[in-house]
Amino acid sequence: MNAEVSVFEVNIRFIGGLLAAYYLSGQEVFKLKAVQLAEKLLPAFNTPTGIPWAMVNLKRALSNWVKAAGSIPAEFGTYMEFVHLTYLIGNLAY
């Protein structure tokens, strides 16, 4: 199993979907899972500029420049899901 995933895709599809489920249902489990997944993505933001790498390894919590897939401006400008996580749990890491 390849543990390298696109930070952007996981963010918009999985975290976004979990947050939508939370907002629609009010069930805390969706918020909890969104936070757990966001924690796995945070290493991608550990860069000199704070602009996230495009890929992150979910198993090893490592991020790297994978085959010229560094940072893509159209992607890193759309992390509104992290803003919602900050709002919901008060953790400024997001």
TrEMBL record:
GO terms for cellular component: endoplasmic reticulum; extracellular exosome; Golgi membrane. InterPro entries: 6hp_glycosidase-like_sf, Glyco_hydro_47, Glycosyl_Hydrolase_47, Seven-hairpin_glycosidases. Pathway: Protein modification; protein glycosylation. It comes from the Eukaryota. Keywords: Disulfide bond, Glycosidase, Hydrolase. Its EC number is 3.2.1.-. Its cofactor is Ca(2+). Pfam families: Glyco_hydro_47. Signal peptide: none annotated. One of its GO terms (molecular function) is calcium ion binding. GO terms for biological process: carbohydrate metabolic process. This is alpha-1,2-Mannosidase. It comes from Lates japonicus.
